[in-house]
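Structure ticket #2291
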Amino acid sequence: MAYKQHFFVLLYELNRRGRLVPGQSWECDDADHARRRAQSATFKVRGAVAFSQMINADSGDAEEPVLIAAFGQVPKEVGDMAA
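Resolution: structure written out below.
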């Protein structure tokens, strides 16, 4: 089977020590849906990113994620994906 593009949202929250950590994530229908959902989630969490990733369902192989949008406070590495 060929690679298929998937779209995701990943939330970021502060843990008890005040460090930014990944939180809940979910898959979306398309890039626009992922971007809108990430943006709206930042009213409840510190930050959120929308990204796409090419995944081969048969082998489990995946290419590097591609940032669609980042909102709020996100780790530096995530922000660097846009460059």
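Closing remark: The first helix runs from residue 31 to 41.
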